[in-house]
Amino acid sequence: GSVFSNVVQAPEDPILGVTVAYNKDTSPLKLNLGVGAYRTEEGKPLVLNVVRKAEQHLVNDSSRVKEYLPIVGLADFNKLSAKLILGDDSPAIRENRVTTVQCLSGTGSLRVGGEFLARHYHERTIYLPKPTWGNHIKVFNLAGLTVKNYSYYDPSTRGLNFQGLLEDLGSAPPGAIILLHACAHNPTGVDPTPQQWEQIRHLMRSRSLLPFFDSAYQGFASGSLDQDAQPVRMFVADGGECLIAQSYAKNMGLYGERVGALSIVCKASDVASRVESQLKLVIRPMYSNPPIHGASIVATILKDSNLYQEWTVELKAMADRIITMRQKLFDALREKGTPGDWSHIIKQIGMFTFTGLNSEQVAFMTKEYHIYMTSDGRISMAGLSSRTVPHLADAIHSAVT
Ligand code: PLP
């Protein structure tokens, strides 16, 4: 027998497993609204034109080699990534108080940040919004932190439970780490208003809670990179410390290139440089150093004003298409007279709609309509098109009636 014969079959990942099931379905009607990846009106994955151009630049530049990057990644990429999230004129950057390391997309950035905190920060508890992206829990547990949660979503309003959030953050132990979705909260699509953010900031600073921002959707929520970065910039403007995990998966469509960054904003430059020296000790035994191609694409785009401009236009087009799909789905349900208030479809922000459908209704829609989504009723608006909206509306209608 095999020395591994006692290994038991693990369940599929709750999010990526949706695609596995979808791929097995042979119906021509099948629709994958599970995974958070952008699709065109034709239902196809999209490589941005500006990414194709940047790749052409890279290919044509024969001086480029495939040497290892440093442990912290590509220097230009790191500098430009910090600027992208913190703003061109950020005092924290000017004062050299920010250390940025290139990591394996958003997930890798969260993991490296989590491991650093587990080793060097005095409070090992991280509070996650309830609900949150499912992988957060595993990432931070395995990084060595204790995971708790704070109230976030109110099912009765399908909006923010702001009172509960303030109460929970108000009773977290001083110094606790608080994971905040920078914008386009996944899975709920519910974000605090700017005024609510300001109250959250004030409360967190007064209780010395440490913000850890997950910025996986900058530009994808509103279509504006600057607007979507406002919550983070608000926290950095007060001179306090925070961590930021950035992903270029969605906003540059670089999913499989695994390109992201972890920034740690400190109060002084000598602290930032010691922090960076310790980040290197986290990264080196984990994967040694990050891959070069995706970061080179990002750096090429961010440092060229024409390419940057093109990117913002393509990014806005993706965000706008998603917003249009929200309206179309909402209109289709209203036209059918589907029972219930569906206004959250147009109020929620970013890639996902948290429909409020329960797991039985989701299972029904998968079985009868070949529509795939996570069992919490989250649908990826980016996977929808004008052609498929009526099919989804039919499915929702019969699931709730
Ligand atoms: N954080 C959130 C909230 C996400 O939704 C995702 C992706 O779905 C990620 C992080 C990480 O994505 P990636 O590792 O592909 O950058």
Automatic annotation (TrEMBL):
Q: Which GO terms describe its cellular component?
A: mitochondrion
Entry EC number(s): 2.6.1.1
State any GO BP term from the record: amino acid metabolic process
Asked if the keyword Transferase belongs to this entry, the reply reads yes
Question: InterPro entries given for it?
Answer: Aminotransferase_I/II_large, Asp_trans, NHTrfase_class1_PyrdxlP-BS, PyrdxlP-dep_Trfase, PyrdxlP-dep_Trfase_major, PyrdxlP-dep_Trfase_small
Key word Disulfide bond present? no
Q: Which UniProt keywords apply?
A: Aminotransferase, Pyridoxal phosphate, Transferase
Q: Catalytic activity, per the record? A: L-aspartate + 2-oxoglutarate = oxaloacetate + L-glutamate
This protein's cofactor list reads: pyridoxal 5'-phosphate
Recorded family membership:
Belongs to the class-I pyridoxal-phosphate-dependent aminotransferase family.
Q: What else is known?
A: In eukaryotes there are cytoplasmic, mitochondrial and chloroplastic isozymes.
> How does this protein assemble?
Homodimer.
Task: Spell out the protein name for this chain.
Answer: Aspartate aminotransferase
> What is the organism of origin for this protein?
Gentiana triflora
Gene behind this chain? Answer: GtAspAT
